[in-house]
Amino acid sequence: MKPTRASTLISVAVVAAVAGFALDAVLASRQAPTLLLSVPLGVTLALIGVAVVLMARPIRRYTRDGAARQHPVDPLYAPRVVVLAKASSLCGVLFGGFALGLVAYLLTRSVVPSLGSTLPNAVAVGGGLVLTVCALVAERMCMAPPGDDEDDDLPRGGTTSTH
User: Fold this and answer.
1) Domain that holds residue 31
2) Which of 24, 126, 134, 154 has its CA 20 to 30 A from that of 9?
3) For residues 143-163, b (16+ Cβ closer than 10 Å) or e, as one string?
């Protein structure tokens, strides 16, 4: 599995930020209240990021330390953590970018918004950023070190023959 590309994350963040900005603009043009995210959303995103890193720690210990090989990791655990980390990085950029669009809309208005209007959205931006960074770190923790393949001495076909 290939590592998450920065271009993918940046493009998702830009699209989400534009969507958040546009949604708030449409709501304001219809004289409806603008969208306000809750503070627990940002905190929850950050805690999910920490949990993903904690889930990747056994894999990191197994791949880096020789002593940890006495307690092997389930073979399906590592791919599951990598997929969770990739999904978490995308969700973090999606939530963070959307909240950034909401904050950008509030800050571009002629009237300075109150702290109660911008702080929850800013916390959501921070939570999305923490989730993304933690997910990328967890993804890197799950990578096998170079030259750690056990089948390096096998021919290209993947099978050995004793003819």
Assistant:
1) 6-141
2) 24
3) eeeeeeeeeeeeeeeeeeeee
